[in-house]
Design goal:
GO molecular function, one term: uridine phosphorylase activity
Structural class: alpha/beta
Shape: globular
InterPro entries: Nucleoside_phosphorylase_d, Nucleoside_phosphorylase_sf
Distance between the termini: 23 Å
Helix content: 10-25%
Number of strands: 11
Strand order of the largest sheet: 5-10-9-6-11
Organism: Suillus fuscotomentosus
GO cellular component, one term: cytosol
Oligomer: single chain
Protein name: Purine and uridine phosphorylase
Low-confidence stretches: 239-282, 349-357
Length: 357
């Protein structure tokens, strides 16, 4: 860390860079593709316009952000690695760097629990979390305990989900006959091994986990580690505007400090205001929309695994489709981050932060 951090509550450097992603306002666009693989991020980056020059930042914490334009529409590609903690860094830190609405599509790999062939593309309409119960006795077993826990489902944004489905069909190369499934349920886990039912030398009490998932969750199709957390944070964002086709959620409650915690409540005088656009009447606040495209790399029923050639074909098609979905999705100009001072705006002497890949 080269620059002094200003605030321990939400760490930023003196020049406004967030702690983990390393970016600041004007370096990330409202439309975002997030991936886990660096080569995948760079491959999609090559699909962006030649002008303006691509902004690329690899942070000290291992996050890669690429920002440019696709068909003249600003877009960012953010590689976050794997798992819920990295999703949390990604969503929260970008939200504090960005004015206006935030559109996020996750493009990643997954395992499949049904008979879909590897190379299929799954667009989950909803996702559940499957997490290891750390209170379970994994050494001796516990006849009264539950080794894994399932959450309630959280839905993708229905409008962005539909736009993604349509864009993938339009961009499908004639030579590709891969299946696209858009009414599936995903499960995101907190482990690649124990919470996904894989057998290792650890005693994980997970031999029947996949069978239990299939019985407990109607329509469950895929397993991976990120989608639920993206959907959950998007839905949890205070002031989120639901689609007209979605069921209105109950009003949010105000969090309180538990009486037994011993933590004093904070007064309005010492609460840090982060981004002005995120403060005020919730009806005019920006929204977060989230959807996902999952490439089936592994079949958990047949144990088949995708070939490198199949991966290349699938990533090219899905990468293009996600870009089309994001850039064609309408966002009112007043709900976009300002062009002035951004890396996708005119080059200014005060804003030289552009780098070629």
């Amino acid at each position: 860390m080269k620059n002094r951090v200003q605030n321990a509550n939400f760490p930023k450097t003196e020049d406004g860079r967030v702690y983990h992603l390393g970016i600041r306002a004007g370096e990330v666009a409202n439309r975002i593709i997030t991936v886990g693989s660096m080569p995948r991020a760079e491959s999609i980056g090559k699909m962006l316009d030649a002008s303006p020059k691509l902004f690329s930042l690899y942070s000290e914490r291992g996050f890669l952000t690429i920002t440019g334009c696709y068909k003249s529409v600003p877009v960012s590609i953010v590689c976050i690695g794997m798992g819920a903690p990295n999703v949390d860094f990604f969503i929260r830190e970008i939200r504090e760097c960005l004015s206006g609405d935030m559109l996020v599509i996750r493009l990643g790999s997954c395992g499949c629990l049904t008979d879909l062939p590897v190379g299929s593309l799954v667009l989950p309409a909803s996702s559940v979390a499957c997490t290891r119960n750390v209170d379970f006795d994994f050494v001796s077993g516990d006849p009264w305990g539950v080794p894994y826990r399932l959450s309630k489902p959280v839905s993708a944004d229905p409008d962005l989900h539909s736009a993604l489905r349509d864009a993938l069909e339009i961009t499908r190369p004639p030579s590709l006959k891969n299946l696209v499934v858009s009414n599936a349920v995903n499960a995101s886990t907190d482990s690649f091994y124990s919470s996904q039912g894989r057998q290792t030398s650890f005693q994980d009490h997970n031999a029947s986990l996949i069978d239990h998932l299939k019985a407990a969750v109607s329509g469950i199709t895929t397993l991976e580690m990120e989608t639920f957390w993206i959907f959950h944070l998007a839905a949890s964002w205070r002031g989120v505007k639901q689609s007209s086709s979605a069921v209105n959620p109950p009003p949010a409650t105000v969090p309180v400090v538990p009486a037994f915690s011993g933590i004093p409540s904070r007064t309005s005088e010492n609460v840090e205001v982060l981004l002005p656009s995120l403060v005020g009447n919730t009806s005019s606040r920006p929204v977060i929309r989230a959807a996902a495209a999952q490439m089936v790399f592994a079949s958990r029923s047949s144990q088949a695994f995708i070939s490198p050639d199949q991966v290349n074909e699938l990533e090219k098609w899905s990468g293009r489709g996600v870009l089309e979905a994001l850039t064609k999705f309408g966002v009112a100009p007043e709900r976009l981050h300002p062009i002035s001072g951004s890396v996708w705006g005119p080059i200014e002497s005060s804003n030289p932060l552009r780098a070629l890949l």
